Every structure is written in C-alpha cells, then in structure tokens.
TrEMBL record:
UniProt-recorded name of the protein: Flp/Fap pilin component
Domain of life: Bacteria
Residues annotated as transmembrane: 12-33
Keywords annotated in UniProt: Membrane, Transmembrane, Transmembrane helix
Length: 49
C-alpha cells in the first residue's frame, strides 16, 4: 500500500528552495557589483556639465 502518493507539497518545497538560492545569489552579486556601478554613475555625472 502506498501512503505517500500525494507529492504536491514536495514540488512546492523545491520551488521555495530554488527561489531562496536565487535570492541569495542576487544579493551577493549586487553587493559585489554595487560599488562599481555607483562609481560609474558618479564618474558620468561629474563629466556632464
């Protein structure tokens, strides 16, 4: 007999884990690239009259 045939919650949990990993990766990438982008816009603003 199969007691665990409904696996709908498993898929939802996997999507949650994937979403969490993508969120952490986005925060890490933005924290690394953020200062460089800020410097780029600061340089562009100082060049414009």
């Amino acid at each position: 007999m199969f007691f665990f045939t409904d696996e709908g919650g498993q898929g939802l949990a996997e999507y949650g884990v994937i979403l969490a990993l993508i969120s952490v990766a986005a925060v890490v990438v933005l924290s690394l690239i953020g200062p460089k982008v800020l410097q780029l816009f600061t340089n562009a603003n100082s060049v414009l009259p």
